[in-house]
Amino acid sequence: RVRGPGYVLLWYRHIGILTPLHINLRDMWRMLAIDASGRAVIDRQQLEGLLSGQLSSDIAFEGVVSDSLHLRFSELMRARRPVQAQVRFSIAEQCVQLGPVRIEPDSVSIAGPRASVERYGVVETEPLELGELHATCDGVASLPAAPDLDYEVDQVTYQIPVARYSEKRLRLPIVVDGLPDSLRATLLPSMVRLTCNVPVAQYDAVRADSFRVTARYVPFAADSPLLLRITKAPAAAFNIDFEPKYAGLYLERKAR
Prior knowledge:
The chain is mainly β and 256 residues long. It contains four helices and 22 strands. 11% of the residues lie in helices and 47% in strands. The strands form six sheets. Strands 8, 16, 17, 18, 19, 20, 21 and 22 form an eight-stranded mixed sheet that branches.
């Protein structure tokens, strides 16, 4: 409640919408008292002292209508949360994504009111539209502004590993696992035809000895065709297929 000349009060009523009176919590922190329910309270006289200094000399400050000002504070919390990139893209024909989107740093420390921090299981970047990718894509993504949270960084870098690939064809021998030393095995067929896709940069490094195709000997099913499996393959190869999937097994005892 204030008192002063009419034109001054009208002027304050007009500008008060744009320039309200402010209370600086840092300045008033030592004045606060904590009541039984955990609320911080400042009494009317202290509040009048904080507000009266913001008025011009031709305005007389008569008092605050409210008896007291109650402020409810939240416990501050700091936690580390993983970062997730919001990126939309497609992969060009004859290209392949070699792994997940890499983020650096992959987690950030955030601080703020406990309730706000606990709402964030992950921190997502601002959405990015990258279009069609023909090669590895590197860039910077911003973290969204949050009025009640502080991030240790406001940007992260991302990398989407993409490479061109080519098809590779190989012939591989079949290895029988679990065969007793007293037996000799003949497989029909003894080789498989394998096809796979390989990044162009690693094409020459993928060879026949990079793979292993096996058939497991099972004594009580020795007359049945054996299922063939790939038990070794290089990380660079993908979309692996081979034919045939079964092989016949013919056994003979070794001479003593």
